[in-house]
Amino acid sequence: MTSDNNLNIRTGMGFDAHRLIADIPLLIGGVQIPYEKGLHGHSDGDVLIHSIIDALLGAANLGDIGKYFPSQDPSLIGIDSLIMLKDIISEINNNGWQIHFIDTTIIAEKPKLSEFIGEIKSTLSDNMNISENLISVKAKTTDGMGFLGTSEGIAALSIATVKQKNEIL
Q1: pLDDT tens digit string along 37-92?
Q2: What are the C-alpha distances in Å from 90 to residues 40, 65, 113, 153, 169?
């Protein structure tokens, strides 16, 4: 049997989805995307950041986003997801982990996101204090299938790999 002390690399998975509604800004990965609808949520609704947060927390075995930012807390209404992300990075760092790699996929029929991928990567890199080379961002559609395909919402999937601080890999 392997000791927990030998597990110097961990991987976590995250997912989030929100409904698109009119007359609010669309934020994905901390970037405002020009579109007539935005993502409804207790915070700013940024599905990409929320999925990254859950992936990071899962990798560090620290729970999920709701543990740190409960939707019942009225003080968190409209909170900037980049603030949430920075708080979670501090939490995983304080627990002896650092980000090794992030892989993300945004699932949206509309708007088309390919022209924003570079800006999203740059924004995430700046706010996570890691190199853009450690972040993969992709955008996919569902070819018209389901609530994502009919542009009722947007979802994101993320995988995060963390490593113990000061470990040589």
Answers
A1: 999 988 999 999 999 999 999 999 999 999 999 989 999 898 999 999 999 999 99
A2: 26, 14, 29, 30, 22
Number of domains in the chain: 1
Question: Which pTM does this prediction carry?
Answer: 0.93
Note if the bond before 111 is cis, omega within 30 degrees: yes
Number of Cβ atoms within 10 Å of the Cβ of 123: 19
CA-based nearest residue to 88, from 117, 127, 134, 126: 127
CA gap 91, 60 in Å, rounded: 9
Tell me if 61 is assigned to some domain: yes
Domain with residue 66: its CATH number is 3.30.1330.50
Burial, 158: exposed, middle or buried (Cβ in 10 Å; 0-12, 13-18, 19+)? buried
Integer Cα distance of 133 and 131 in angstroms:
5
What's phi and psi for 45, nearest 5 deg?
A: 75, 15
pLDDT for 36 equals: 95
Say how far residue 125 (Cα) sits from the centre of its chain. Answer: 12
